[in-house]
Amino acid sequence: MIRAVVVDDEALAREELVALLHEAGGVEVVASCANAVEALPAVRRERPDVLFLDVQMPAVSGFELLAMLDPDDLPRVVFVTAHDEFAVRAFEQNAADYLLKPVERTRLARTLERLGRAVGGPPAGVGTAVAAGAPGAAGLAAKVIARIPCQGTRSIRLVDLAEVEAVRSSEAGVYVMTAGGEHFTELTLRVLEERTGLFRCHKQHLVNVDRVEEILLGDDEGASVRTRSGRTVPVSRRFLAALKERLGL
After folding, report:
1. Mean pLDDT across the chain
2. CATH number of 147-246
3. Which of the four CATH numbers 1.10.150.120, 3.40.50.2300, 3.40.50.10070, 3.40.50.300 does domain 2-141 have?
4. Overall pTM > 0.85
5. Where are the beta strands (DSSP E) in the chain?
6. How do 76-81 and 97-100 pair as beta strands?
7. Phi and psi at residue 182, to the nearest 5°
8. DSSP, residue by residue, 103-159
9. pLDDT digits 0-9 by tens, 138-197
10. How do 27-33 and 76-81 pair as beta strands?
């Protein structure tokens, strides 16, 4: 049984694809998501075999979503879109397949046949390419996240990287800290460190070196930094020398 997550901002297109997958058999749709922000926790929670992913979505595109996923969570990816001009870019990122809307039953059947043969082995799509460092995945692995999606009560806020002073991780989740407050994000600390340029200063903290106002040295060889808005962020002893070097001290 292939476990799948479907992501599409168009409700009718999403429901139609879910129905076609059920009709085809051999597929369990474990999550159906209306946007990339919903998909982030769904992929991490469900660990599907395949992600059926729309390319053009508001706020965060399908390509941007892939850059926001932890490499360990990346399943095979089948792009689903009404625009064939994205095909080249999709296959450059080692997509397992590329389906044009409206999705045809016979075309979907061929995709599922290939996926069925592949499930059980190492992912043959984007996930494997990133893990193995294949050339086709270079664009995805090196993708810089310029805006971090953060969840509000009934909204999604895209925080520009330049606004970020620090990021902290706790049992409650990952929070992006700006001069105006803290914002919850589904992105992991690892992804934010690797794809934003934020500096790892502590096991549970990243800091934007461009927003550092002062380094405060402690008695135990540890330290903290004060950001421009007055926030204090801890710095572990193991990261202090590298932080000083990064700041040119």
Report:
1. 86
2. 2.40.50.1020
3. 3.40.50.2300
4. no
5. 2-7, 27-33, 50-54, 76-81, 97-100, 147-151, 156-160, 164-170, 173-178, 181-185, 199-202, 205-207, 212-217, 223-227, 232-235
6. parallel
7. -115, 145
8. PPHHHHHHHHHHHHHHBTBS--SHHHHHHHT-GGGHHHHT----EEEEE-SS-EEEE
9. 344 446 889 999 987 778 889 999 999 999 999 999 999 999 999 999 999 999 999 999
10. unpaired
- 12 Cβ contact partners less than 8 Å away, ≥ 6 residues apart: none
Encoding tokens for residue 171?
């049992």
Rounded CA separation 198/179 (Å): 16
**Element housing 39 (H / E):** helix 36-46
How many Å apart are CA 41 and CA 194, to the nearest integer?
A: 19
Reply yes or no: is the peptide bond before residue 102 cis, omega within 30 of 0: yes
Tokens of 2: 């292939």
